[in-house]
Design goal:
homodimer; alpha/beta; nine-stranded mixed beta sheet; eight-stranded mixed beta sheet; 24% helix
């Protein structure tokens, strides 16, 4: 430790910066004291009474350690790290534990490297958990396949903390070699879990394999059971999945230090509207949790779980990551400091990082729409149909009778409401297309296509006619990824997601505005009110781990039996 | 993780060992559940309902994770690690965080290596904090001088966790180079503190330098202040220094996870009589602390502070270090398991490790008594005297008038109760002797000598006559270290401490019996009832960091002014 910092801490020399007389929140003792905070070289020297070369009067303001998101996929914001940081930091977020699972499915190691490099252009501390499940299943084609030896190479990078959420919990529990090779490679690091409704002996086996955290709890008994077995539990509040209020009855003082907050997936409009981790805190506080306990769950608890020694508290030696606000019951930061530097004021970021333009991630859409065969070539009229469930990403498997053309294609006009879904492999230009029939979405004389399609992020397209599908897909290719609406032979509107087909370097408000106007346009084109989000509900139609029936580039996927099935019902 | 363990955890194969139906203590949730514990390869696979190749009925017994001593000097037991482990493990201790500061002062790195190697012969997990202050001060001669580059070499050893208690807190706060070199060398490890009554900005500076723990708190406000600044606090209960009851008012649920138990220094008779860390738990429980909170402070809290991932809890993946007992309000273990192996039953160790006979540490007493000049050679009659304080290791500086012989020696018969104290450098055969006058000890026609003399562990000898002093010192040399009583020209009794002059490979009960009989003999020779322990009170007379006046091999030491002073009063 530099000797001049020691002299400043003991009060013999003035500190670089002193925040005077704020209501300082101590996350160790959960107390508030009016005192000064002395800061030099981005580090907190101590609290008490201090003189500084620069002094700022903070009377009347609470001062909390900067908030940490314990588990987040930046890609869900559709913004690159250089766009994401200015969006979340004004809400008090000063560090995040990111898992770049989405871009890794498109670009593998190069995608992870891009995220690390882009993040370094911002003041936000982006710590990385290396994606563990690329591809997510063997029933889809991702842009990369990451084996244990590939990801192990990233282990010792300074931003890397461990292994990202191990979603393949059946593989863990059943002793799958590839899965265990990855766990073993990271056995001396933190391993994040993902084990929805895994209990008892299965949970024991999962934890024994080395998994330390879980963010998939949906009710209090599940949380308690997992804490009991030694896990740290994230209480997640995302755009799609909201668990904080359901889990609050399970929050107890005796094991509060094992509980953390995270967002997992947040869309830009939600961040713009209600904030980030401050929203988790505010929600919990409003529901009756002591606000200092909530702040503890957003700061020191996460730092301890992930072994971020200098993060998450206002105490000597900690980084001066500080959030200043007036109302403890509804935190809306006035000012945010990152390592002693003012980074946001009154909701606005005071920095504007240059986007990283990396040719590799800007070139990720590889397919040839003109070659497509949209014909379903069916051999029977009784077919399996994906039926959407209202406001939900799960689906139901229905059986319907359709009318076929002579060469076996489906005549959609004969079964109103039925749509064609195409999942087009876009990484290796293989020409592979998965096809399915969907009911419950609603669309007329139109097509919607997007290059976000979990988890392999192929291009997904839904349509009631070939012409619009082709127009939409050609545009996707032209703009190198994004979301496109086409109707009656022309492109109505689009959002460019030029970075891996998942993110853009344009501003958060541009993304928000586009998504809102396109949502309205989609509704006008007939998308049902029962569909929560016209685009994300499509993006999840290819995710082969959510029940009951989905479609990947390899075809219709029966999640219950975990296999590809023919569209024709009753055949295997 | 071995696949067969995964299969056993999920219940598809029987575990090696299942403890059936015990009252299992969960230190995460602080709850007790009647359930089975499945164990294989020394690891807990899980709790719940399990079948085992071997099953043991534990109904009616509580099962706790093994206790951990968060900070201990093994040398204080006067037993080597091979003798210490069988002594403490029957009390439920399965791991310790040791700081071998004493032997390091005698033998440097070789002493530390000896402790590590000896500990490996036992089932006890001995984790090591590398001594930071050898020698403790520059006013005494130790057997070794350990610089930052010396101790840094041990940093990556698998038993080593960090840097031992940084007692030189003035050096830390004032920016001493040597001290900071050591702190910097261990900045990525745990650094233990030692900061009695350090508060405010000084404490901020001390913590800023990297110190993480403190075991010197003596009252609740001090504990709270240190927790607030981010420290982990040990509640110590040793033979000499007992803080648990004084600190209990400062124990709060909201920061319980930052509080740990330790013993620091325990003599063999106290361990034999009341136990080890179970005694801290029992004391706290008796005083009203929830026993599960107390157990948490003796298990998972310590493991978390020192980052011992698989220690301190009964959960999947944790080592099967288990303590079984009947009475939660006064823990006296029936049975102790270490990594799944039964190591103690009904208070008896079931293992008997072979002592490590290391020639280096067995040869540590180097001085020539026959060459000694016992004459004080004083130039005036008004002298500084060390006055003992009743039942305390602090002393007072008194001024007395003595009678001198023609050649300046003190005529003790003229000042009844006054004794001569000699501190003889024994590491480098330098012939250096520090001399002092002591009042308040009481001894007639006798001498007591010992090779335990904190912190440099030179040989200390108190006597009212030259002849007995010489006899005692010759015996110390002959037995290569220990404690000797001599009277009227012959050795009355002695305890051999052949390992570095601090420890023995003989049994704990031998040490206890010897110390008891020698205590009685010392009392018969006139040692005052105001002296708590005739031998340890001598051992602390050379410790130059305890007020008010002490004596090292370099002479009389004024602790208040932190310098060597002449025996003659008023001279400098």
């Amino acid at each position: 430790m530099n000797r001049h910092l020691i002299r400043q801490a003991r009060g013999d020399e003035p500190a670089d910066l002193v925040l005077k007389g704020g209501k300082v929140i101590n996350v160790f003792t959960k107390t508030i004291e009016v005192e000064d905070i002395a800061i030099s070289d981005g580090i907190i020297l101590g609290t008490g009474i201090y003189q500084g070369k620069r002094e700022i009067d903070c009377s009347g303001l609470y001062i909390s350690p900067g908030f940490i998101d314990g588990h987040v996929h930046i890609e869900s914001s559709m913004l690159t790290p250089t766009g994401y940081a200015p969006l979340v930091m004004p809400w008090g977020t000063t560090s995040i534990i990111a898992d770049c699972h989405e871009i890794a499915n498109v670009k593998g190691i190069a995608g992870i490297e891009y995220m690390l490099a882009s993040a370094k252009r911002t003041p936000l501390d982006v710590f990385m958990m290396i994606p563990s499940c690329v591809p997510a299943t063997s029933f889809e084609t991702a842009g990369a396949e990451l084996k244990a030896e590939d990801i192990a190479k990233l282990k010792d990078r300074d931003q890397v903390l461990g292994l990202g959420e191990m979603m393949n919990y059946p593989g863990v529990i059943e002793g799958d070699d590839d899965v265990h090779d990855k766990l073993d490679a990271f056995s001396d690091r933190i391993i994040d879990g993902h084990a929805p409704s895994v209990f008892g002996q299965d949970l024991n086996a999962y934890i024994l394999a080395g998994v330390k955290t879980d963010h998939e709890c949906t009710h209090a008994p599940e949380l308690i059971d997992k804490v009991k077995r030694g896990m740290y539990i994230h209480l997640r509040e995302g755009s799609q999945t909201k668990n904080v209020l359901d889990l609050l009855p399970g929050v107890k003082e005796s094991y509060l230090s094992r509980l953390l907050f995270c967002s997992d997936d947040l869309h830009p409009h939600d961040i713009l509207k209600q904030g980030h981790i401050n929203h988790n805190i505010n929600l919990a506080t409003k529901a009756g949790l002591d606000p200092l306990s909530a702040i503890q769950m957003a700061t020191i608890n996460i730092a301890q779980c992930y072994r971020l020694d200098r993060y998450g508290a206002i105490a000597p030696g900690y980084f001066a990551d500080l959030v200043l606000f007036k109302d403890l019951k509804h935190i809306k930061p006035d000012v945010v400091y990152k390592k002693g530097t003012l980074v946001a004021k009154d909701g606005k970021a005071l920095f504007n990082p240059e986007p990283l333009l990396d040719a590799t991630v800007l070139d990720s859409v590889h397919f040839e729409p003109n070659d497509f065969d949209f014909n379903f070539h069916l051999k029977q009229e009784i077919v399996n149909v994906i039926k959407l469930v209202k406001n939900n990403i799960t689906t139901r498997k229905f059986i319907e009778e359709v009318t076929l053309t002579e060469d076996g294609d489906v005549v959609l006009t004969k079964t109103p409401g039925l749509l064609k879904l195409f999942v087009i492999e876009r990484h290796h230009q293989s020409g592979r297309i998965g096809k399915a029939l969907v009911r419950g979405y609603g669309l007329k004389n139109a097509a919607i296509a997007l290059s976000i399609a979990h988890d392999s992020h192929n291009v997904i397209c839904i349509s009631d006619n070939e012409q619009d599908a082709l127009v939409a897909l050609r545009k996707i290719k032209e703009i190198k990824g994004g979301i496109v609406l086409a109707s009656q032979g022309r492109v109505l509107d689009y959002l460019k997601l030029e970075v891996a087909g998942l993110m853009t370097n344009q501003s958060a408000s541009h993304v928000k505005d586009k998504l809102e106007s396109m949502d309205k346009a989609a509704r006008r084109l007939g998308v049902s009110d029962e569909v929560d989000d016209p685009f994300l509900s499509l993006a999840f139609l290819s995710l082969p781990v959510i029940p009951e029936i989905k479609c990947t580039d390899r075809g219709l996927f029966d999640v219950t039996h975990f296999k590809i099935i023919p569209i024709e019902a009753g055949r295997s």
